From TrEMBL:
Belongs to the small Tim family. The keyword Chaperone applies. This is Mitochondrial import inner membrane translocase subunit. The lineage of its organism: Eukaryota, Metazoa, Ecdysozoa, Arthropoda, Hexapoda. The keyword Zinc applies. It comes from Arctia plantaginis (Wood tiger moth). It is a peripheral membrane protein.
Length: 90
């Protein structure tokens, strides 16, 4: 039962993190791209800007995550090599 509760807590945290990122992205792209409030609909230039903004944000976020993962893997390999060199296989 504790594993199920932990899983639910992790799911809630993941969903909250997603909502924070989604709201940040929405606010950022809205602020940068939408300037005309005389109509209920987006102009084609505003729509194109928001799509480009979203794509750039997501690509950048993906690239940063990838680089972080690569850095973590390299750090783990270095720690393992150092532990083996010192005679402490952990």
């Amino acid at each position: 039962m504790a594993a199920t509760e932990m899983s639910e807590a992790e799911q809630i945290k993941t969903f909250k993190d997603f909502l924070v990122q989604y709201n940040k992205l929405s606010e950022l792209c809205f602020t940068d791209c939408v300037h005309d409030f005389t109509s209920r609909s987006l102009k084609s230039s505003e729509e194109k800007c928001t799509l480009n903004c979203m794509e750039k944000y997501l690509r950048t976020n993906q690239r940063v995550s990838q680089r972080f993962h690569e850095f973590q893997m390299l750090a783990n390999e270095n720690m393992l090599a150092l532990a083996q060199k010192s005679g402490n296989p952990s």
